[in-house]
Structures
1.
Amino acid sequence: MTERQILVAANWKMNGTLETIRPLLQSVIQGLEGIKSEMVICPPSVYISELATLLDGTQIKLGAQNVSHLEKGAYTGEVSSLMLKDFACQYVIVGHSERRALYGENDRRVAEKFIAVQTNAMTPILCVGELLEERESNSTEEVIARQLDAVIELAGIAAFKNAVIAYEPVWAIGTGKTATPEQAQEVHEFIRLRLARHDNQTADIVRILYGGSVNAGNAEQLFEMADIDGGLIGGASLVAEDFLTICRAMR
Ligand code: PGA
């Protein structure tokens, strides 16, 4: 089995101003010593240029929270993957449940974004996850399978060699209600097996992050699970000490 390096990605969502992100980043950068996990920060897009400068020379990589599926043109308000690439972004979150629920992104659109990111040599972080009612009606696996299969069909299984998957149960996002390590592991294993149906080797190397109320107190137990390879962190990534503690959690 491949040794997969832990990846911790911060999703700041629509939070922060220049006045708050500068000291936040400074504290994170000051606390980096000894951290072995790979770290990524995804700020709001207007701050990507600022972070590209502030993170230069550190081990922290830069990511984006969203991207257009199109390359360029008359699409007011959109940001293309070519533009993100210009600012040294290495990762882009696609298909976050907030984008799916609030901005109507369907599986097909998410798959197109996934491809747009890879076309510009960046790594997509593909989010999948079920709603509370879907879990309660025992359709978690069906939902995750549908979300994954849409991308496998359009991008091909080989595309997952350069991708990250984030399992984020929607009922656990921003609610303080984390999936138990066992609940998360069960779905992570399901995701890996779903990929393995197409290609064992790809399934073995792809990193699957858990997201949904990860905090300084629960990261370690989650990251100990065999198929959990790190986390996608919302709320806790806005507090330097908490984010650093999560990044220090190892297998
Ligand atoms: P949360 O958000 O850590 O605040 O639950 C996670 C996410 O939405 O990526």
2.
Amino acid sequence: MRDGKLTPRMDFHLTHEHELIRESSRRFAQEEILPGLRERDAKAEPDPEFLKKLAKAGLTGVSIPAKYGGMDTDYISLGIVCEELERVDTSARVAMSVHSGLHCLTLLQWGTNDQKERLLTPLANGDKIGAFGLTEPNAGSDAMNLSTRARRDGDFYVLNGEKTWISLSDYADYFLVIAALEGSDKKAHVALIVDRNSDGFSSRPIKGKLGVRAGNTGQIFFDNVRVPTENRLGEDGDGFKVAMSALDHGRYTVASGAIGIITACLDACVPYARDRKVSGEEIGRKQLIQQMIANMAAGRDMGRLLYYQVGWMKNAGLRHTREVSMAKWQNCNFAFAAANDAIEIHGAYGYCDEFPVERYFRNSRGAMIYEGTREIHTLVQAEYAMGYREDRPLKHMLPKWPFGEDA
Ligand code: CAA
């Protein structure tokens, strides 16, 4: 109660600004991603111009304060953009996930004013593209067990090792890399922003992926790469926390993108089921088909609520590690089930690339692995429910929205 009036505690409306960003990112996806997508996916060839187009549309600066060259939009807007991009293609959403989610928001959360001015500004305006390097050949779910090593040498760290399954490995300019600190506790890590132009840095694409074939994924290698200490996020020993913060943001973009896949499945299945006839009746009238369509609609609506809640918590400056894990886990399950059913509804036509649903099926599978497997999220959720795990406020929180002077 304030001034004798009830203060509304819940608001399910999207703002006019949200509607505008949904409309503009939908148009961007239709005009800039869809043309030629089937061929790029078949040939596993990313669009080399895609990141420039993303920057030109201003989307590299979503949810970044205007003082760093960003759009100043709230965090729900980032989810909406991811949803609209993935409604057309997962590869485009993955690029947003690594640039905006894993890299830029983590820099916004952990960076000093100097780091934000120096590094975030060119990222927000799209002059530079960011990516994230945590996973290694022998460290996926066990993210603390890193072999990549950083040794302090005066005002530099000397980095050696390799990272794998890195989205935008061959395109990004800056990589947020998590490494074990040499000569200290086995669990002490450091988070460094590495410029791809550094001596000793190299990358190699991964070929033969099941999905996200129109996107670039690869390995990155560090051979005595010298990184200035001014590019360290947080302190020595904060590296794992920086990585987990980054995943709070990355998982949000994966969760919101998953709703785009479900919507795309409905976009494909509803007209198909109204058109296709069996025994003189459109298959949309068959109850078993209706069951699958209803499940898709339920997944879309429940999943949206889950990710909107996380976006709202980000706006309010609240820790949301549990909620984002739940949203990522469930929404990826909903999306994969929707894509699987979309193939079923299309019958044999769903099994070839004449219709897009086989691509949705392949693309939705990967998200059940990256940014925390469904097994990891299941265990994490059980630990919260059992009271074995709880979220406490962090040393560095993501700035609230609307952004203040301190953002
Ligand atoms: N933000 C900040 N700090 C956090 C945090 C967060 N979200 N979560 C945990 N921390 C802090 C904790 O507070 C704790 O600090 P204190 O010791 O000071 O209290 C510290 O980090 C350790 O946290 P936990 O005890 O929770 O760590 P854990 O060992 O229990 O974590 C795990 C286990 C949750 C399974 C974690 O290892 C995990 O999430 N693994 C999955 C990793 C993953 O998702 N990998 C995918 C990588 S990226 C990718 O897939 C590629 C791509 O997209 C391009």
